[in-house]
Design a protein that fits this description.
The complex is a heterodimer of chains A (about 675) and B (about 525). By secondary structure, chain A is an all-alpha fold. Chain A is built from 28 helices and 2 strands. The longest helix of chain B is centred in the N-terminal third of the chain and has 24 residues, at about 120-140. Classes of the chains: A mainly alpha (about 675), B mainly beta (about 525).
Chain lengths: ~675, ~525
C-alpha cells in the first residue's frame, strides 16, 4: 500500500511528487477529453457544419469551463484514491468468502461510496454539457403545451444520467477489486513515460468504450426493475412531481437511442478519464528510480542502495531499489564498480555484502516459504496417490493417453474442487452424476463417486474420524498462507479427505491434548461438518483454483530482480571485480539459488501450480500477478545458467555439497 | 530520436574495397568445399572425404520428395463437400466467424434476391467497395500488404526461395551441440550430439515456419515463428520421448500480429521479440508470463530482427526503405532511411559495435559503427553519421574449365561467426545464368575494419545454398552450416587461430569500445563519398 500516511522520506520526496505529477498530467489531459466528449455528444452526421460550429461555441461556453473545473476536482479525488489504494503486491483472495470480505472492508466501502459520488458528479457535468433535455433535475411541469409554473416536475432524463454515473462509479470500484485493478505491475522493459503512455492509450480507450457498453446494459436492466425506487424517493424528498410523458423504466422508454448513445458516451468519458489517471499514476510510480550506491556524505547515507534495500518499509521503495539493482547490474559498469569497491578506511566490501546479504535472505525466505507450503500440501493430500490412481484408472479407460484428462481428477483430489464440477469433466465417473450438482447429497459434494468406490460404502463424514484427526487439522491451519488462515472454517473442505487418509494409522499426538480441548475440538468439528454440508457455505469456502499458488508468489517480482541483479553482478565480477569481493560469497549464492531451484521444482510438481490462467488480450486487467511464478522459475534458471556459462570449469573449485555439485553439473551440461 | 541520415546509394565506391574479383575462382561442378585450413579452402570429391573431429555434426539429407507439404488452407477443404444452402443468417454467422467483417459483407452482398431487403444488399456492396478502395490505397502505400501470408513469409524470410525449400529453418543451440531443423512439412526435428533421440515437434498452429531460435541461457526453450503466432517449445533434453506433445508448446499470439517472419531472443534470455510485416509494432514478449508489450512505430511493419550479441542494440528492418536501430535499455530507436530499397538482412559484430547490412536492389554490403556503448548515455543509440560501403558484390565472371562462370548479385543473408573473423554472405543468383553462391570473407577489425576475400563455398553438383548459419561456439575456428536446395545440410569448418581481436562480450558486460571511433579519422579510408542530398 502506497499510503501517504507513512512519514518516510521516500514517500515524501519521491512518491508524493510522482503522484502529483501524474495527477497534474491527467488534469492537463482533461480539457482534451472533454472537448472530444462535447464534439461527440453533439454528433449529427447530416448537419456537419452545424455540428462543428455548435460544438465550438459550446466549448467556449461557461458550462463547459465550469464542468472542467468540477471534473478537475474529481480527478484530484480519484488520483488521491489511487495513491492510497494502489499496491505493488496484489492481495489475492483464496476463497470466495475472502473475495466477499474484500468488498466489505471499511476502506473498500469508502472507496466504493466515494467513487459512486464521483461518478454522479461526472454524470452531472456530462448532462450539463450535453444540455438540452438533460440540463436540470427539476423543470416546470408542462401539461399539454402550457406551463404551470407553480409545480416543479422531475426531469427523469437528468435523473437517469445521475443514477448511471453512480452505477458506473460503483461498478468501477467493484470491478477494481475483482480484477485487482489497484495492483501496480512493473514492465519487463523500460520505456520513456511518454512512449509508454502513447502505447497504452489506444487500449485504454478501446477497453473503456467496451466496458461502458457492458455497464450500460447492466444499468438499463437494473433501472428497469429497480428504477422506480430512487425516483420515488427523490420525488418525495424534493417535493417534485413525477409526470414525464414516458417513464424510463419501461421498454419503450429505454429504447430511446439518443439517450442510450449519450449515456454510452458519458460512460466512456468517465472511464477514460479515470483509467487515464490510473494509467498515468502507474507509469509514474513504476518509473526507474536511481539510488546512489555510496555517498561521500554521511547524511545522505540513508538514500544509498545498500541501506534502502535492507529496509522493509515502504514496500514500494524496496521494489524500486531492487529494480535499480537489476538495472545497474546489467547496464552500468561504473556503478557496478562502486558495488565491488572497498570501503576507504578498513577496506571492507560493505556495499557488496549488504546487497548480497539482503538478496540472499530474500531468496532463502522464499525457499522456506515454498518448502513449508509444500509440506502442508503434501500432508493434506495424503489421500492423493490413492485417489489419483483410481481416478486415472477410470478415466483413462475411456480416454487413454490423454494427459489433460488424467490431470483433472488429480487436481481435484488435492485442491478440493467441488466434486460436482469435476464430475462434469471426467466422463467415466458418472455415478450419481444426475443428482450431485443440484441435490445436496452430502457425500457427493466432497468426494468423487470414484472415491466412494475405493473407500467402500463407509461414511467418511462421521464426526468420530474427524475428532481423532482434529489436532492435525488445526495444527496445519496456520501454515496455509492464505488470507484466511485463522478462520477455522477455512480448512473445512480439507477435513474429510485428510481424515480418511489418516484412518489406518491414528496418530499418537491426540493423547497430549487434554480432555477439554478434545471436547472443544469435537464440537468444533461437528459445527464444521455441519456447515460443510451446506452448498452455499461450501461454495463460499472452497478454495479458488490456483489462488493459493498465486498468493504464495504474490511478491515474487522482487525476488526476480534480486536473482537477476545477483547473477549479473556475479557474472560481471568475472572481469570487473578487482578485489575479489564476490568470491567470498560465491558459494553461498550458488547454494541458495540451487536450494530455491529445488523448492521451485517441487512446487511445480504440485497439481495446479503449472496450469496457466486464460489470457485475455483486450482488457485492462493486469494478469501479470497470475503468472509471476512462471516468471520466477524462468528467471531462476536463467540466473543459474548465466553463472555456469560464464564461470564454466572454474565452478569445480567452488566448495559445495555433493548434491549441489551434481545439480550444477546438470546445468553445465545444459540438461536442466 | 529522428536522425536524418540518408544513405547515399548512388555514391561512387572506392576501388580499394573488397570485391568479388579478388576471390579465387569458384570450384567446378563435382567438387565440394570441405573446410578451410592454412588460409585456403580445401575441396574434395564428396562430403565424406572430410577429416573427422571429436564430434561431427550430422550431415543430414531431407529429400524434397519425402516431405509432403501441408499447404492446406482452412478454406480449401470446402471443395470436398457437397454444396448446401443454409439460411442467410447461418451463412452470415459462419462468414463472420471465418473471415470477419469482410466475409460477412461479402455474404450479404452476394445473397440472392428476395432473401433480404434490397437496401441491405446495396449497403453491403457499397461498404465492401469502400473497404476495398481503402485497402488498395493502403496496399499502394505498403505493397507487401497485398501478398498472401505464404508469399509474405517467402519474401521476407532469410531462407532463399523459402516456399520451395525442403529445409525452412535451422537453429544451433547457443551453448551446446544441439540444433533444430524446420522442414517443409511443418515439423521440426531436434538433433543432439549426445543422444540418438531426435524429437519431432508438431503442433496444430505450427504452419509456415519462417524462423526459429533457441533461447539463450536455457537448455530447452525453442521459439518458432509461424504463420499465425509464435510457439515456444520446451524440449526437455533429458526426455526420451520422440514426439513431445503439443502441451510442451506455449502459444504466443496477438491479434493482427501474423504472419511472424522474424524472432529474436535477447542475449540475456529475458525477452523474446517477434515481428510481422503486417503489424506496425514489434512485440516484446515476457515468455514465462505470456504477456507482451507492443513497441509501435509508424510504418508498414517489421520484417527482420537482429539482436547485437552484447544485447545493447537491435536492428529492425521494415518492408519500406527504412530500418531502425533500437537501443535496448530505454527502447528508443534511430531511423535510417535508405533510398533504394528495403534492408534485406543484417548482422552484428560480436562486440555489438558494428552492424553490416545489405539493401535490396544493391550489390554492396554497408557497415555502420556504433562507437559508444549505449549504457552510459541514456536513451541514445549513438551511431555514426553515415554508413560506409565495405564490400562490392556486383556480378563478376570467372573463366573456368566449364566455360565462363558468372557470380554475384544481391545479398540475401549475412552471417558473422561468433569470433568475428569470418563473414559468410549468401548471394541471390539469377538461377539459369548465375547460381546462388556463398561468398566467405575474412574480417579484420584492427587497425581498420576491412573485409578480405576467403573463397566461395560450393556444395554438391546442382545444389544451391539456401540458408547459412555459424555454429555459436566452435572451438577451433568457425563452423558454417549450410542448408542446400537438395535438402542436404552440411557443415564447413574453418580452422584458424583467432588473431586475438574482438572477443564476444560475456553476459551483458560489453567490453570497452574499440578505439576506431569515426569512419574518417586516424587514417581510415573513407569508403563512401559525401552525402549527395
Amino acid at each position: 500500500m502506497l499510503s501517504c500516511r507513512q512519514n518516510h522520506w521516500f514517500i515524501r520526496k519521491v512518491i508524493w511528487w510522482r503522484a502529483a505529477a501524474s495527477i497534474a498530467w491527467s488534469v492537463l489531459l482533461l480539457p482534451v477529453t472533454t472537448a472530444l466528449f462535447v464534439v461527440l455528444s453533439r454528433a449529427s452526421l447530416f448537419h456537419p457544419i452545424q455540428w462543428i460550429s455548435e460544438s465550438l461555441s459550446l466549448l467556449c461556453g461557461s458550462y463547459v469551463i465550469f464542468s472542467v473545473l468540477v471534473l478537475t476536482g474529481v480527478i484530484l479525488v480519484v488520483g488521491f484514491f489511487n495513491l492510497e489504494y494502489c499496491s505493488v503486491v496484489p492481495s489475492i483472495p483464496c476463497t470466495k468468502i475472502a473475495l466477499l470480505g474484500k468488498f466489505l472492508r471499511p476502506y473498500q466501502f469508502v472507496h466504493s461510496v466515494v467513487h459512486c459520488i464521483m461518478g454522479m458528479v461526472v454524470a452531472w457535468c456530462a448532462a450539463v454539457m450535453i444540455g438540452g433535455r438533460y440540463s436540470f433535475l427539476a423543470s416546470p411541469c408542462t401539461e399539454e403545451g402550457r406551463a404551470t409554473t407553480h409545480q416543479m416536475c422531475l426531469n427523469e432524463h437528468h435523473f437517469f444520467f445521475l443514477m448511471a454515473g453512480a452505477f458506473i462509479g460503483f461498478s468501477y470500484s467493484l470491478l477494481g477489486v475483482v480484477i485487482n485493478m489497484d495492483y501496480v505491475s512493473f514492465h519487463t522493459i523500460q520505456q520513456f513515460k511518454y512512449l509508454r503512455f502513447k502505447g497504452a492509450l489506444p487500449l485504454v480507450v478501446k477497453c473503456s468504450a467496451v466496458q461502458s457498453l457492458y455497464y450500460l446494459r447492466n444499468y438499463c436492466i437494473a433501472y428497469f426493475f429497480l428504477g422506480y425506487m430512487p425516483r420515488l424517493w427523490i420525488c418525495t424528498a424534493m417535493n417534485l412531481k413525477n409526470s414525464s410523458p414516458i417513464a424510463l423504466d419501461t421498454v419503450s422508454g429505454l429504447l430511446d437511442f439518443s439517450l442510450l448513445y449519450h449515456l454510452w458516451i458519458t460512460g466512456t468519458f468517465l472511464l477514460v478519464t479515470w483509467h487515464n489517471t490510473m494509467l498515468l499514476f502507474k507509469i509514474y510510480i513504476t518509473e526507474m528510480c536511481s539510488f546512489p550506491v555510496q555517498s561521500s556524505f554521511s547524511e545522505e547515507a540513508f538514500q544509498c542502495l545498500p541501506t534502502v534495500l535492507t529496509g522493509k518499509q515502504p514496500i514500494v521503495l524496496k521494489f524500486l531499489a531492487l529494480q535499480d539493482l537489476s538495472f545497474l547490474s546489467q547496464y552500468s559498469p561504473s556503478r557496478r564498480q562502486e558495488v565491488f569497491s572497498l570501503s576507504q578506511p578498513g577496506g571492507h566490501p560493505h556495499n557488496w555484502s549488504a546487497i548480497c546479504k539482503e538478496c540472499l535472505s530474500m531468496i532463502s525466505d522464499l525457499t522456506q516459504r515454498l518448502t513449508a507450503y509444500h509440506e502442508v500440501v503434501a500432508s493434506n493430500g495424503r489421500a492423493k496417490p490413492l485417489s489419483a490412481s483410481s481416478d486415472q484408472k477410470s478415466s483413462t479407460s475411456e480416454s487413454s493417453g490423454m494427459e489433460e484428462m488424467a490431470k483433472i481428477p488429480r487436481v481435484s483430489a488435492v485442491f478440493q474442487i467441488p466434486a460436482s464440477v469435476f464430475q462434469g469433466s471426467s466422463v467415466s465417473s458418472l455415478h450419481g452424476y444426475q443428482t450431485a450438482p443440484f441435490t445436496p447429497e452430502p457425500d457427493s459434494l466432497f468426494t468423487s463417486p470414484v472415491m466412494k468406490h475405493s473407500m467402500g460404502v463407509q461414511r467418511p463424514f462421521s464426526p468420530r474420524y474427524d475428532s481423532v484427526q482434529s489436532p492435525h487439522v488445526t495444527r496445519r491451519g496456520p501454515k496455509l498462507w492464505t488470507s484466511f488462515t485463522e478462520s477455522p472454517l477455512n480448512g473445512s473442505p480439507q477435513t474429510p479427505q485428510a481424515s480418511r487418509a489418516h484412518v489406518p494409522n491414528p496418530p499418537s499426538t491426540t493423547h497430549t491434548s487434554g480432555f477439554l480441548s478434545q471436547w472443544v475440538h469435537n464440537r468444533h468439528e461437528q459445527v464444521r461438518n455441519f456447515l460443510a454440508k451446506r452448498v452455499l457455505i461450501m461454495y463460499l469456502f472452497n478454495k479458488l483454483p490456483e489462488a493459493s499458488s498465486q498468493a504464495l508468489f504474490a511478491d515474487t517480482q522482487a525476488h526476480i530482480w534480486a536473482l537477476e541483479g545477483l547473477s549479473h553482478l556475479v557474472v560481471a565480477s568475472y572481469t570487473e571485480d578487482r578485489f575479489g569481493v564476490v568470491q567470498t560469497t560465491f558459494s553461498s549464492i550458488l547454494s541458495s539459488m540451487l536450494n530455491l531451484q529445488e523448492a521451485v521444482d517441487k512446487h511445480f510438481k504440485l497439481p495446479h501450480a503449472s496450469s496457466k490462467p486464460a489470457w485475455s488480450s483486450y482488457s485492462l486487467e493486469d494478469t501479470t500477478y497470475k503468472t509471476l511464478r512462471f516468471a520466477l522459475r524462468a528467471a531462476l534458471k536463467t540466473a543459474i545458467y548465466r553463472i555456469t556459462s560464464t564461470f564454466g570449469q572454474h565452478l569445480h573449485a567452488v566448495p559445495m555439497s555433493a548434491e549441489h555439485r551434481k545439480r550444477i553439473q546438470q546445468f553445465m551440461e545444459y540438461k536442466e | 530520436m529522428f536522425r536524418n541520415n540518408a544513405l547515399n546509394l548512388r555514391c561512387v565506391c572506392s576501388p580499394a574495397m573488397c570485391s568479388l574479383a579478388l576471390f579465387p575462382p569458384p570450384l567446378p561442378d563435382g567438387q565440394v568445399t570441405l573446410c578451410e585450413s592454412n588460409n585456403e579452402l580445401i575441396s574434395g570429391a564428396s562430403l565424406d572425404s572430410a577429416q573427422k573431429q571429436e564430434w561431427d555434426p550430422p550431415c543430414l539429407l531431407f529429400p524434397r520428395d519425402a516431405l509432403k507439404s501441408h499447404s492446406r488452407l482452412e478454406s480449401s477443404s470446402r471443395a470436398a463437400f457437397l454444396q448446401h444452402r443454409d439460411t442467410l443468417w447461418m451463412r452470415s454467422a459462419g462468414a463472420w466467424r471465418d473471415a470477419g467483417l469482410c466475409g460477412l459483407l461479402n455474404e450479404i452482398a452476394s445473397s440472392s434476391e428476395g432473401e433480404i431487403p434490397r437496401w441491405l444488399t446495396v449497403g453491403a456492396r457499397f461498404t465492401l467497395a469502400l473497404l476495398r478502395w481503402a485497402s488498395s490505397f493502403h496496399g499502394y502505400l505498403f505493397p507487401h500488404l497485398t501478398l498472401s501470408n505464404e508469399d509474405m513469409v517467402a519474401e521476407f524470410s532469410q531462407v532463399l526461395d523459402w516456399s520451395d525449400c525442403a529445409v525452412r529453418g535451422f537453429a544451433w543451440h547457443p551453448h551446446t551441440d544441439r540444433f533444430a531443423v524446420a522442414l517443409l512439412d511443418d515439423s521440426i526435428r531436434v538433433y543432439n550430439a549426445k543422444s540418438s533421440i531426435t524429437p519431432t515437434l508438431k503442433h496444430r498452429l505450427q504452419q509456415g515456419v519462417a524462423a526459429l531460435q533457441w533461447k539463450p541461457l536455457c537448455a530447452s526453450a525453442l521459439a518458432v515463428a509461424c504463420r499465425s503466432s509464435v510457439l515456444v517449445w520446451h524440449v526437455d533434453p533429458t526426455s526420451l520421448s520422440t514426439r513431445p506433445s503439443s502441451g510442451c508448446a506455449q502459444v504466443l499470439s496477438h491479434p493482427g500480429h501474423a504472419p511472424v517472419t522474424s524472432i529474436a531472443w535477447s542475449p540475456s534470455g529475458s525477452v523474446l521479440i517477434s515481428a510481422s510485416p503486417v503489424d506496425t509494432s514489434m512485440m516484446v514478449w515476457d515468455v514465462a508470463a505470456e504477456s507482451c508489450v507492443p513497441l509501435q512505430r509508424v510504418g508498414g511493419g517489421v520484417s527482420f530482427l537482429a539482436w547485437a550479441p552484447d544485447g545493447s542494440r537491435m536492428l529492425a528492418a521494415t518492408p519500406s526503405p527504412l530500418f531502425r536501430v533500437w537501443e535496448t535499455r530505454m527502447w528508443t530507436c534511430e531511423r535510417w532511411p535508405c533510398l533504394k530499397g528495403r534492408c534485406q538482412t543484417g548482422c552484428w559484430s560480436p562486440d555489438g559495435t558494428r552492424l553490416l547490412f545489405s539493401v535490396q536492389g544493391e550489390t554492396v554490403i554497408y557497415a555502420l559503427t556504433f562507437p559508444d556503448a549505449p549504457g552510459e548515455s541514456q536513451g541514445r543509440c549513438g551511431g555514426s553519421q553515415a554508413a560506409a560501403v565495405v564490400a562490392d558484390l556486383s556480378e563478376t565472371s570467372f573463366s573456368g574449365p566449364q566455360g565462363e562462370l558468372r557470380v554475384g548479385g544481391e545479398v540475401h543473408s549475412l552471417a558473422w561467426d561468433p569470433r568475428g573473423e569470418r563473414l559468410a554472405v549468401l548471394l541471390q543468383g539469377d538461377p539459369p545464368a548465375r547460381p546462388a553462391v556463398i561468398a566467405v570473407f575474412k574480417t579484420r577489425s584492427s587497425p581498420i575494419f576491412e573485409l578480405l576475400p576467403c573463397g566461395f563455398v560450393k556444395g554438391e553438383a546442382g545444389a544451391e545454398p539456401r540458408l547459412i548459419q555459424f555454429h555459436p561456439h566452435f572451438s577451433s575456428g568457425a563452423l558454417l552450416t549450410v542448408c542446400w536446395s537438395n535438402g542436404r545440410i552440411s557443415h564447413v569448418p574453418f580452422y584458424f587461430v583467432s588473431s586475438g581481436g574482438v572477443r564476444p562480450g560475456r553476459g551483458g558486460s560489453p567490453p570497452a569500445p574499440l578505439s576506431l571511433g569515426g569512419t574518417v579519422d586516424d587514417g581510415e579510408r573513407r569508403l563512401y563519398s559525401e552525402l549527395c542530398s
